[in-house]
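Per your request, structure below.
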C-alpha cells in the first residue's frame, strides 16, 4: 500500500505570542506540519535554514526586520523555502517590498484558518496565492503612485495568462486552459514581466492586482 505524502512543513513568524501559538495549533489541526514558530526575523531565518520548511508564514513587520529583509536573507542563503505573507488591510506598503523580494503569496489575517491552510498548501506545491483583495486597496506611497499604470501595456492574452498564474495554475495548466503551447505561455510570461518591470511571477501578480488589471 503506497505511503501517504507528507504534509507541508511550515514555520510561523509573528511578533504576537497569541497569534503565533494560535496558528501553531490551528494549522496542525488542518493537517500541516508546523515545525517552528518565531517572534523575530533573525529567528525566522534561522528556523528556515535549520528546518528548510516548505513554507514560511511571515508577518510583514517583525521587531528586528521587515519581511523583505527576511526574504532577501532566505534567497541569499539558497534556502528552498517559499514565503507567504500573513497581512492585514493596513499593511499594503509593507507587503509590496516583500513581494518584490520574492514572496510567493499573501493571505489576509481576516481569513478563516482553513483558507490560510489552503494558501500554504498551494504555495508548498509550487504555486502562488494572490486570491486576497484586502491588502490590495491599501494606500500607495507617493513613489509607488508614480508607477501604478504599468499594466496598461498588457495584451488581453497576457492578462489571461497572469490571471491564471494568480489562481495558482502551472505553465502546463495555463497552456491547456488557453489551448496554446507551454512555449507560448512562457513567452507571454516573459513579456508581461518585462512590461510590468516585475522581478518574479508573484511580483507581476501583485502589480496587476494592485492596478486592478486582472480579476481573481
Amino acid at each position: 500500500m503506497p505511503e501517504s505524502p507528507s504534509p507541508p512543513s511550515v514555520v510561523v513568524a509573528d511578533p504576537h505570542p497569541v497569534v503565533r501559538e494560535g496558528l501553531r495549533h490551528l494549522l496542525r489541526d488542518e493537517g500541516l506540519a508546523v515545525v517552528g514558530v518565531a517572534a523575530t526575523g533573525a529567528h525566522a531565518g534561522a528556523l528556515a535554514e535549520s528546518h528548510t520548511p516548505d513554507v514560511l508564514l511571515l508577518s510583514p513587520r517583525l521587531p528586528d526586520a521587515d519581511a523583505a529583509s527576511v526574504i532577501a536573507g532566505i534567497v541569499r542563503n539558497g534556502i528552498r523555502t517559499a514565503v507567504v505573507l500573513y497581512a492585514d488591510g493596513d499593511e499594503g506598503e509593507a507587503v509590496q517590498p516583500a513581494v518584490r523580494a520574492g514572496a510567493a503569496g499573501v493571505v489576509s489575517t481576516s481569513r478563516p484558518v482553513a483558507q490560510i491552510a489552503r494558501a500554504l498548501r498551494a504555495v508548498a506545491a509550487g504555486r502562488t496565492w494572490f486570491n486576497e483583495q484586502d491588502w490590495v486597496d491599501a494606500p500607495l506611497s507617493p513613489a509607488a503612485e508614480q508607477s501604478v499604470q504599468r499594466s496598461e501595456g498588457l495584451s488581453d492574452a497576457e492578462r489571461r495568462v497572469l490571471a491564471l498564474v494568480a489562481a495558482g495554475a502551472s505553465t502546463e495548466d495555463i497552456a491547456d486552459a488557453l489551448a496554446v503551447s507551454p512555449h507560448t505561455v512562457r513567452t507571454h510570461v516573459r513579456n508581461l514581466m518585462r512590461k510590468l518591470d516585475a522581478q518574479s511571477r508573484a511580483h507581476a501578480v501583485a502589480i496587476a492586482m494592485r492596478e486592478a488589471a486582472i480579476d481573481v
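The CA atoms of residues 131 and 216 lie 6 Å apart.

Regards,
D.
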